[in-house]
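To assess whether the prediction recovers the assembly geometry, we first specified each molecular entity separately, as shown.
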Amino acid sequence: MCPLCGERDRREFYYYGAEDFLNRPAADAEPGAWDNYLHLRDNPAGVTKDLWYHEMGCAQWLVVTRNTVTHEIIATELVAERAK
Amino acid sequence: MPELIAKSALQGRAPLTLGGVTLAEVPVGPITSIAVFPGGAKALAKGLKGLGLTFPAPNRFAEKKGARIVWTGRDQAFLIGAPAPALQGAALTDQSDGWAVLSVAGLGAVDALMRLVPMDLRLLAFPVGQSVRAPLNHMNAVLLRTEEYAFELMVFRSMARTAWHEIGVAIEALAARAALKP
Ligand SMILES: [Zn+2]
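The predicted structure of the complete assembly is given in tokenized form:
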């Protein structure tokens, strides 16, 4: 489900990774913060947020909230809207 | 500057008609991408008014006096069929020679396209005036429903012959199946 295009086929979307990639540490942040940003991921059984790209549609990056246990897609939002 | 002769992607190719479905190339004239600057919507709307058009909502297109405006992405639309006036509030890019436009028309057009596009294209789900950016097999495409039984399809110019081939195969397969029915 894309906020712009509507309900669309799974194959149109490309998976990138955790939502954490949107929270880039400041350039002078502690090495620990960079380690966390680059390598440390939670692996929740339940609700998680990650980044998907609507590659074969509107070419927008999306934050998808989904449940890893039930496979339910709870929400999708445009990364571009967040940046506003 | 010598005068160069503009050629469409599939120039000279005769339309293909099989089983009541016709595939043809459509000459559409100029294509201009309109990419709205942040905060530019108001100024742009003023300029579009001169053409009798408004910026389209997602997945919609509209036409006025031979000019068509098609939603093609977040804060982006294509103006097709009319030269772009000096519009404010947006970046304008001439894309006329970057695209090939095909029409697929006839009662079976829906069935042919639904073999290639992973969407419900039946009239109730995809009415006239709807346009989407969607894959045609592995090609990025813009698909518009122009009439109840007619679609137009934009693909990158480099994909023109591939698109023609794949739609042709779908039309042939449907016609062959229909011929088998008693
Ligand atoms: Zn989309």
